[in-house]
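Entry 14. Structure prediction run on the chain below.
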Amino acid sequence: MPPPLQARVIGAGPTGSLAALALADAGWTVSLEDPLRPDQLTARRRAYAFTQSSRRLLENLGLWEGVEPLLVPFHSLRLLDAALQRGLTFLPDDLPQPSTSGSVAPIGWIGRHAPLMEHLLETLVRHPAITLQLGETASSAASTPPQLVVAADGPASATRTALGIGSWGWDYRQQCLTAEVELRGSEPNQAWELLRPEGPFAVLPLGNGLTQLVWSAPASRCRQLESLPPAAFLDSLMAVLPDPLEADALREQPRSFPVGLRLARRLSSGKTVLVGESAHRCHPVGGQGLNLCWRDVAVLHRLASMAATGSMAPHRIAAAYGRRRWPDLVLVLVATDLLVRLHSNRHPLLLPLRRSALALLAAARPLRRLVLGVMTDGLPRLRPGRSLASLAPW
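Output returned:
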């Protein structure tokens, strides 16, 4: 029996950690390395939105049962154009494949970074096929060269730079400010996406009246909000929240970070593949970021499984990965960019277009299912004999 295939994963954030677990699940032995210590990897204070595509990947890897208790489900998503004061609500029936089990399927879930990373690291430590090299123990040395290298070392990827892979993209004039706030007035398990002229604004439920705000605004505005004392910050927040939301308390110091659109010119080089933010970044509108990264992992898992069973040569994985990921990446990056540009202004010629789009979405469930399907699953893969038109739900 031939020895297991070997992979090296660079970067142990949520995407790199999941990539290591996916490769091990496919039958590979994996070395996972990161210059950060475990306490540094878990220290990031933010929350993620998880869609059905991420849930399916975790189920396929046997991880969902351990991750689900760490997440807060939301069963409705209120989309509101603040300039028009019009909106609509996405419900579980708008999912492309509504639940038939009798229980209500969530549209998605919200989870904090720290508990998720702690769980992933604990799972990695226990896995017999994975070797962890974190912090001072991290080393690029290996006894035998791996058949696959996975670069998951973030937007400033040293691996991508070393390979000479450039990127397309730009920085937005906006920044994103995150804060944990006690809110009341929202329906239980409801998320909000407010499309405002200064930028998108998300309200993500964390349970027990707590919410994570993701507030996009010009950089100067974000810096000013960061510097405010809690009472003044809540006053500024109340000025932008729609009815019936009301802010009661600020639970953590607001923090802002720059946002941009970035896509690597190539997704692979030799036996190295770029996954997650080493390959792409998008505006956080719609909570697409982590889910897009984890769909990279889902494709990598399928290809690694094929190589482990002998149906694909290991040296073909990198090129096949790039071909399979391009359509989804381009679709999501273009869609998020257009959404930000369309709504982050008050141009009078665009207002009728936005009003008509909302009215059409509100009136046509098939269209809502198509939109929500792209938001939760990305671009569906075409099977032989199927056309793009066949993917529409009507």
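Residues 6-72+113-167+260-379 form a domain with the FAD/NAD(P)-binding domain fold (CATH 3.50.50.60).
Filed with the rest of this week's runs.
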